[in-house]
Amino acid sequence: MLKLISKKHVKEILKCINEGEIHFNAIKKKLNINSRNLSELLNGLLEQGLICKRWEDKDILVPKAYYSISKKGKEVLKVYGQINKIENLDNTNCENENIIDNSKNKVINNSGIVIGDTKDSNITIKK
Fold first, then answer.
1. Taking CA atoms, which of 57, 98, 102, 121 is between 20 and 30 Å from 33?
2. Per-domain boundaries in the chain
């Protein structure tokens, strides 16, 4: 599943389908994706249970396929949201990052605990 949800257009397809049941051609037009690629991605999403497919007018020559999102697909959209949050996190708060307060000659870890003196050559990190 990870391989599928990391493919180009999958996130956009799921978001599009999440807006409400939608016809194949409407997805194609909205996302500007070619039919072959869209069909392959939709089939993969169906196989993984991320979307559902409904046929309309089965008795006509070219029946219309409509797609809707499943509960599993909605959970994957939440994962995309979490990934966005993670990507936007500040990288400066590393676990072992220390602050040197020269005004007090102290070394403070990222939890605010004084862990040594700048005059001391043997500073240890306490967690």
1. 57
2. 2-87, 93-127
